[in-house]
Design brief:
Blueprint: E1 8-14, E2 16-17, E3 21-23, E4 30-31, H1 33-44, E5 48-54, E6 73-75, H2 82-86, E7 91-93, E8 98-100, E9 102-107, E10 124-126, H3 132-140, E11 146-148, H4 153-161, E12 167-171, H5 172-181, E13 186-192, E14 200-202, E15 205-207, H6 213-220, H7 225-228
Parallel strand pairs: 1-5, 1-6, 10-11, 10-12
Antiparallel strand pairs: 2-3, 3-4, 7-15, 8-14, 9-12, 9-13
């Protein structure tokens, strides 16, 4: 594999999609299902990993394809879309490795009030800018509620608990994790596919010139959903 640095897989990730990708309290050390998954891939192919944690999700899929790119792969629970593919020259996309549904995280005390997106008239909903939750709103947005963009995932959770927002739109694996951190206070509603009948797949954007794609796809083909979710934080 033609990695940027010999025997090292350089990967950029995002700090705000726990438990898919996040950062430890030190603000530097990445953790999450995507991180553990690619660490296993690298170890299986005698590569070290070098992680860069970014505080911005928007456009992360473009970075491996940039001229003089610093990254071989981006890993942040990214779904390949036609727009993302078009705006990412120099990037090739891996096979799917995990699937999620869209969902809302709400206060448990509100579960008799909110059931779907159409129950939020006059309310305030948070999403990560340019995430698929954001894209989902553009498709289903009834234009009757306010969308806000928190700087980080856990700021949205704090705002939800404090009543500053009414819901947080994110993938079900993330919202279920966040709800589990606050038992009795938060719950998940309105699980749905962005495209009816098709769960949303994650893929890795890969630097085209790296020649990593075929090897990565062969490895992904041998993995299971259980292997992807095999991190300590999801076993507690």
């Amino acid at each position: 594999m033609n990695t940027i640095t010999k025997n090292i897989l350089k990967i950029c990730t995002y700090s705000g999609f726990a438990p898919v990708c996040s950062v430890r309290p030190d603000g530097k050390t990445p953790w999450g299902t995507d991180i553990s998954f690619l660490n296993k891939f690298a170890a299986a192919h005698r590569l070290e990993t070098e992680w860069t944690v970014l505080n911005k999700f928007e456009g992360i899929w473009q970075l491996p394809g940039k001229p003089s790119s610093l990254y071989d792969i981006a890993a942040a629970g990214i779904t390949e879309t036609a727009d993302r593919k078009r705006e990412s020259p120099g990037v090739v996309w891996s096979n799917e490795y995990f699937h999620v549904q869209r969902s809302f995280l709400i206060r448990k005390e509100d579960e008799d009030t909110f059931h779907t997106i159409y129950d939020f008239e006059g309310k305030k909903i948070a999403v990560t800018r340019d995430s698929t939750a954001d894209l989902d709103f553009r498709v289903r947005h009834p234009k009757v509620f306010e969308v806000v963009y928190p700087p980080v995932q856990f700021k949205a959770v704090d705002d939800l608990l404090e009543g500053k927002i009414d819901a947080f739109g994110e993938g079900d694996v993330s919202n279920e994790y966040l709800a589990a951190l606050h038992p009795g206070l938060l719950t998940v509603i309105d699980k749905h596919d962005m495209t009816k009948g098709q769960s949303e797949p994650f893929s890795f954007p890969v630097r085209k010139d790296s020649d990593i794609l075929d090897t990565l796809n062969r490895w992904l083909g041998k993995q299971t959903r259980a292997a992807y979710l095999d991190i300590p934080e999801l076993k507690q």
